[in-house]
Design a protein that fits this description.
The chain is built from twelve helices and twelve strands. This is Pseudaminic acid synthase.
Amino acid sequence: MIEIAGRAIGPGEPPFVIAEMSGNHNGSLERALSIVDAVAGSGAHAIKLQTYRPDTITVDADGPAFRIGQGHDLWGGERLYQLFERAHTPWDWHQPIFARAREHGLVPFSSPFDPTAVELLEKLDAPAYKIASSEIVDLPLIRLAAATGKPLIISTGMASIGEIHAAVAAARSAGCDQLAVLSCTASYPASPAESNLRSLPLLAALTGAVTGLSDHTLGLGVPLAAVALGACLIEKHVTLSRDAGGVDAAFSLEPHELAALVVESERAWQSLGAPVLGPRPGEREGLRFRRSLYVVRDVLAGEPVTELNVRSIRPAGGLPPDAMTTVTGRPFTRDAPLGTPLTWDLL
């Protein structure tokens, strides 16, 4: 169990839904604030930013190493510097975005990508930190974020077991005692077939941390399945409208879809219940209407039981249906009107 901004997060609590703004503000602070408003209206619990400058995450260089592969669905051929310049959230926007979120009761936090980002977020009293999948190998950054004493969430996209272990060890060594790890497929958009959600219990066992999902697939099916496998946090990118375009719009949820995720993820969590078999409390009324043997025609004492005067019908209260072969031919001990449950004392 961990706690972020006073909210408990863990197996005994409804899923914590995080809306990732990323670059879907499309370079407009007004749009960024509108996204915050829409996230609040959806019922999600947190909004997350990404805190970097193009110059803190890469350099303004060209060449194959600094370009997205031509075959990429969204950003094929684009230079890294240009992509990050287009997608980054200016640092002077962070304060108004955090303030708007807090006005709505949302939890605002971010993924820092370098020490200067951690410094900025500390000034804004960020209540938690998220380590992005690509940064899981940046152990100094993980130690720095963990040393703030804030809860830490680590995405594990692309990571090997050894890299996950090293990241968790780095966080723990720096004093982090509130840790969550997120299963993630770091492709954009991601295929559901590559989600491998059955690894969620393995991730929990490996790390001893609260687990969740950072999801880049389309729709709601994958995160809802993750809840069934123990995910306690769900992160999805969000935009006002996919049709309006944007860096991540193609695989982002619109506000009404985010609202559905909030409702359905909690419903999925509620449905998990306990590992027990047998009647549920809500089935008590239904138990009254199981089939049993009833007198279906007025009979007199001494008449034998036949298929014409006794049948298996609803409701319950009589002998079980399988007793029919045993009671057939036995005489009634007293008169019994239609609608009388057949019991041993009548025979």
